[in-house]
Amino acid sequence: MTDTAIQGIKVGDTATFEKTVSEQDIVAFARVTGDEQPLHLDDAYAAKTRFKRRIAHGMLSAGLISAALGIKLAPQSTVVYLSQSLRFLRPVYPGDTITARLEVTQLDTERGFVTCSTECTNQDGTTVLTGEATVLLDAKE
After folding, report:
1. Is residue 109 scored above 70 in pLDDT?
2. What's the CA gap between 103 and 26, in Å, rounded?
3. Fewer CB within 10 Å of terminal CB in the chain, N or C?
């Protein structure tokens, strides 16, 4: 069932979250996830790849969408991810500033589901990933 709003969120609402991806972010992400492949951590190795230098983990950039959802779009709500599709289009390098943008495209008020188109761009305005997220919104206790 589609209706007008959930926890004050309506179709067409947008949110953004911006972060510069640091060397420390990449190292911490590798440690937390266990993804320590040399493309992310070893300059000499990465120089021999198609990217010619180290790149950030794709999921690190995707994680910024979570921040946009949780602290920007619906800070008054408890936000629980239900699904996220992702299409990685361009690499993200250490020092890039990534902006996660989302727009509410659909509501299911009966279940409290919010669906959003998602996109991350770098400091040059180049889209590095696109996708769609569906989250559950509940009131904070």
Report:
1. yes
2. 27
3. C
